[in-house]
Specification:
The chain has nine helices and five strands. By secondary structure, the chain is α/β, with parallel strands linked by helices. It binds P1-(adenosine-5'-P5-(uridine-5')pentaphosphate and magnesium ion. The site of magnesium ion (MG) has 6 residues, from helix 2.
């Protein structure tokens, strides 16, 4: 009886497993996350989608501020983003999470390390490496097709890429130094990209989990 209780309490303390999905604007993070969800049962949390959702709430305390950050390609202060991510993780009941588009600067990384890092197991960083030209075309086409995103225009895109180069790239390099980055060439068709992504997740699933 005692050992049974022990094993149940152990199960209750399941540690969430997290993959950060990073890459430039339009690199294909969201598209590939949908495939990963279908094939591997992860829960997809897009930091950008959560911020846009928060922004569109009529009484949101932070709505106007988030709106201005997103239009200008600037990165929202980490406490707002982390609170949204933590709430979704707690409510979901899932064990495996894809955190898409976060952490994207030093403030994000510090906030994550302060608030969440000890509570989860970071599996690896999935990095979509894609050229600026291709990413620009994709975001502009999405805007022209009526995405409704206030940042799918040339003016915002220039700022988003600037922020990516100056603030997000160093975060990817930080994880590269820890040998945690799995790089995928994002310049190809969605199916070709996913073929590589699939291999990465199959390999990870075959490894013993913490
Ligand atoms: N597409 C996708 N893959 C393709 C392929 N292989 N071939 C051809 N077309 C492909 O794809 C973009 C478009 O390309 C789509 O039309 C798709 O069909 C097509 P998508 O999968 O959406 O790419 P993704 O990398 O997700 O691009 P996204 O525009 O979402 O990237 P961002 O990182 O810029 O956007 P995000 O929503 O993460 O962030 C937006 C803003 O929110 C940030 O700029 C910032 O201001 C703010 N933010 C924060 O402040 N903090 C955060 O933590 C997160 C966001
Ligand atoms: Mg996205």
């Amino acid at each position: 009886m005692l050992s049974c209780t022990r094993s149940l309490s152990y199960l209750k303390k399941m540690i969430p497993k997290v993959v950060f999905v990073l890459g430039s604007p339009g690199a294909g993070k969201g598209t590939q996350c949908q495939n990963i969800v279908k094939h591997f049962g992860y829960k997809h949390l897009s930091a950008g989608d959560l911020l846009r959702e928060e922004m569109s709430k009529p009484n949101s305390e932070f709505g106007e501020m988030i709106d201005s950050y997103i239009k200008n390609g600037k990165i929202v202060p980490v406490d707002i983003t982390c609170s949204l991510l933590e709430r979704c993780m707690t409510q979901s009941g899932n064990e495996y999470f894809l955190i898409d588009g976060f952490p994207r600067n030093q403030d994000n990384l510090d906030g994550w390390n302060r608030r969440c890092n000890d509570k989860v197991k970071l599996q690896f960083i999935l990095f979509f490496d894609c050229s600026l030209e291709i990413c620009t075309d994709r975001c502009l086409s999405r805007g022209a097709a009526g995405s409704g995103r206030s940042d799918d225009n040339m003016e915002s895109l220039k700022k988003r890429f600037n922020t990516y180069q100056n603030e997000s790239k160093p975060i990817i390099e930080h994880y590269e130094q820890m040998d945690m980055v799995r790089r995928v060439d994002g310049n190809r068709s969605p199916d070709e990209v996913f073929a590589d992504v699939k291999k990465i997740f199959e390999k990870s699933m075959a490894e013993p989990q913490a």
